[in-house]
Amino acid sequence: MSNKITKIAIASLTGLLATVAVAAKTNLQWTDASPLPVERQEIYADVRDDRIYTLGGLFAGAQNVGDDFLEYDASRDVWTELSPLPETRHHVVVSIIEDKLYGIGGFAGGFPGWEAQSDVFVYDFNTEEWTESTPLPEPRGEHTAAVIDGKIYVAGGRFKGTPESADFNSHFDTASMVVFDPIAEEWLSAPDMPTARNSHAAAVINGKMYVVGGRQFTEQENGEYANVNVASLEVYDPAAESWETLAPLPQAAGGITAAVLDGKLYAFGGEQWVPEKTVIAESWVYDPASDQWTAAPDMPTPRHGIAAGVIGNRIYVLGGATETGAGAVSTNETLVVR
Question: How distant, in Å, are the alpha carbons of 82, 95, 250, 273 from that of 286?
């Protein structure tokens, strides 16, 4: 009799947990928003005054590179083209501090002729003009950035193998991090990430920088090189000047994006090259309080090379590509968090 009661209790508990999981997912629902003016992938974004801004990117076929500077007004669900970047770029990170937007590094050239750049382009929202600031200490692409206390933390990505490197294969992954002080217009050194990586994502929670996912271009057993995804989640505390390794993403993914809403980290999409090529639809939510990930509803459109921005209770996931390495889209899907 006791065994039967125990089995019933376990079954009831399992059913309850499943119900809770379903209930949690019903609080997260995807909807469509106005698509970008042109299909693009390998973009980043930031938010100012409830508007999302993104720069450049790779267009169809991963060959054409853009200089577009786009503004998305969520209240009107409308895109506007602003004054273009001084030069075409893809993988150029976007960070906004008060009235200035910084476009940092990235690549010039379509695949495979990628060449990492060190430029820091600055857009002044008051004058509506671009200027240049102190360049990165080294050219860098496929990196990520986050703003903490008025400074820009730039982490990881790919460096040139030699000063002349001008194609994808002649770059290498880095764990290095540098910090930009916009008042002094200078770059400062900072501790390296525990994991070298590219095509990762970053976001800020309570003054700390969370870096998740990405990949490493590494040599395989057959002697060939391939993009191998990583799942690690690492957090940097500027006050302590140290990194901590936390619970990894349940699914290793490169080419992902991330955003923070209500103190939780959301990670979306990505792509995989080995052991087989696939584009990822999965979404995940990380709770720093419990150091645990839970599944969120899949993106309606599996994508990599995407950007994200948070306005109100909505996370906008922009652009990207639907094929490994290619297939740029203008999709703008929104996760509503109720």
Answer: 34, 23, 10, 25
Mean of pLDDT over the chain: 92
Residues in the chain, pLDDT under 70: 1-26
Domain boundaries defined on the chain? 31-337
- The three state secondary structure string of 248-285 is CCCCCCECCEEEEECCEEEEECCEECCCCCEECCCEEE
Residue 109 backbone class (left: φ over 0; alpha: ψ -120 to 50; beta: rest): left
Distance (Å, rounded) from C-alpha 52 to C-alpha 3? 57
Structure tokens at 273: 């090259």
Whether the CB-CB separation of 109 and 127 falls below 8 Å is answered with no
Q: Which CATH superfamily groups domain 31-337?
A: Kelch-type beta propeller (2.120.10.80)
The one-letter code for the residue type at 38 is: V
What pairs with residue 108 in β-bridges? Answer: 115
How does DSSP assign 47-70, residue by residue? EETTEEEEEEEE-GGGT-EEEEEE
Dihedrals phi, psi of 244, to nearest 5 degrees: -135, 140
